[in-house]
Every structure is written in structure tokens, then in C-alpha cells.
């Protein structure tokens, strides 16, 4: 790893696609609408559940 690269810097800078108008995908945990279009593949989480998931993974050793 070179000195210019940091562990904290994101490696993929492409933003996730967000829906400007509905229909929105629903969160797989709480079923609230997310920021993502309904056509998004994979697991979609609302902003609250995304934050909680990030907290869980950051604190797990």
C-alpha cells in the first residue's frame, strides 16, 4: 500500500443511484421507503437502518 492511500478513504467513489421520484424500494428490515429506486437489486435499507448496520459492523471486532 503506498503512502498516499489511507484506510479511511473510500475505494469506490461512484455514488449509489437514488430515485428522484417514486416508486422507491422498501427497506428489507423495517419496510419503510428507501432512497433507492424500486429497480435496485440486492438488499436495500432505509437511511436509519443503514446507519444502524454501519454502527454494528464498525463495532464488531
UniProtKB/TrEMBL annotation:
Record's compositionally biased regions (Low complexity): 9-20
Region (Disordered): 1-20
UniProt protein name: Small CPxCG-related zinc finger protein
Source organism of this protein record: Streptomyces lateritius
Lineage of the organism: Bacteria, Bacillati, Actinomycetota, Actinomycetes, Kitasatosporales
